[in-house]
């Protein structure tokens, strides 16, 4: 793999407001992780119950319970991770994190409020998320309610150095990060 | 013994006669003609200057000279004003002087250890603007063209980190794309938008290329 993070995209972005695509992909990754862990948890619980009692645990017909468990699990998933480090699994993958509106680390209280307020951004076809695209500070409704913001936090400088370290020293390089010759990607 | 009046009168007469003779001779001599007849050069050649100098007691002369008094009478400022330094410097052949300087010999005489001991390293380090030096370094070139690159590659590179780099960089690129078009539709200058929370972004303003 020879993709070079361009200088313009990487080195000057830490602490800047994260954009809509990064946040959307991170959220999608979180939903995947949330659902995967939830399913894995239920399967593990079922297996354990069957192992102990000898009877298979069936969830059909207990939609309310499973839904309640899912809601609680979702709350724990987001609130715990945001209060712990300001980022969820998906956010960590995309290199973004939640901070207080002034840039200081997010508090547990803000994390809880943000988690509770998150569903409100989904009402009316997700109009609450529009602020990420058109807002001056790229903040959604739940960000405003919790007093938080989302910023880039990944070490793009290290990523660029890793890429440069793997390049052939003889190949001339442009400032954009790509070799000046017509080297073909691997 | 009483003086003899006769001899005194004879003596005075002789004196008067001598004076008269001298005056007559002097009147008769043409001084100019006499000087014209003297060969001064020949006369000077016959003078033994060395012998004269040998007879001069220089030490005694020097002892009699009051040097302080002479110096006090010298107007140094006036002398300096009359010196044309530029003209003197123009006449100095610096290259020739430099050629005659034995640098190696000078360096050998320098006690480097003593100089280093007198240097306040902490003070020097405090005055060094490390940030400015780092800014001037082309870190990219350094990593790319030195062994440092392979060290970084060996210590940090993994498939997972590369995938993450790609995903993140692509995400930032798409963020920029959408933000750019959104701001264009809203007729909103990108330079007026805040880059990030105040404590995370320096208040120096937007980056040269503007924010996404």
How would you characterize the overall build of this protein?
Chain A has 186 residues and is mainly α. Chain A has one domain (10-165). Chain A is built from nine helices and two strands. Chain A has helices at residues 7-10, 20-53, 63-85, 89-94, 108-117, 123-126, 130-134, 141-146, 156-165, and strands spanning 96-100, 148-152. Chain A has a two-stranded antiparallel ribbon. The longest helix of chain A is centred in the first third of the chain and has 34 residues, at 20-53. Chain A is globular. Mean pLDDT of chain B is 80; it is low at 204-212. The longest helix of chain B has 27 residues, at 159-185. By secondary structure, chain B is mainly α. In chain B, helix 14 (139-145) crosses helix 15. In chain B, 72% of the residues lie in helices and 0% in strands. The relative contact order of chain B is 0.02. Chain B folds into three domains: 11-76, no CATH class; 91-156, no CATH class; 158-207. Chain B has helices at 5-28, 31-37, 40-46, 49-55, 58-64, 67-73, 76-82, 85-91, 94-100, 103-109, 112-118, 121-127, 130-136, 139-145, 147-156, 159-185.
